[in-house]
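[Meeting: bench + compute handoff]

Bench side (C.D.) handed over the final construct sequence. Compute side (W.E.) agreed to return the predicted structure before the next meeting so the bench team could plan truncations. Sequence as handed over:
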Amino acid sequence: MAEQTAAPQQAAAAQSTEPVELWAERTGTLAYTGRNNRGGEVLIASAGVPGAFTPGELLKIALAGCTGLSADFTLSRRLGESFDATVRVSGDADRENETYPELTESFELDLSELDEESRQRLLVAAQRAVDKVCTVGRTLKAGTTVNLTFKIDE
């Protein structure tokens, strides 16, 4: 089953042989646009700027999206391709340390058509899939090293 869980992600990665490039360009005071070389864009700004996400919100959205995508294959096998799902994520910042000490996710699914035993088996399988292949969640749990360099035009 583990091989089946990873298969959709491996197939998606195999579709593009071009390395992923990510960058954020300054577009105004306290405003950036995050981009990738596939044409994706996201507006990043301070809290309260209409139509934009803060970096912390993007971190949380990345976690929610990764959780959903990681469980998608497992869930769709049992619920069908058109099942509805919402992954909510929350967690307050510790402003003294500028960290998010705890993030809480809530995976909302309609499992009313399943009996209790089937429901529990599906939730265990979905949790295993998330634990195994959600890179964002695994990185947050493990911690990571961030290396910053400055390239200066002279």
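W.E. noted at the follow-up: The chain has four helices and five strands. C.D. will use this when planning the next construct.
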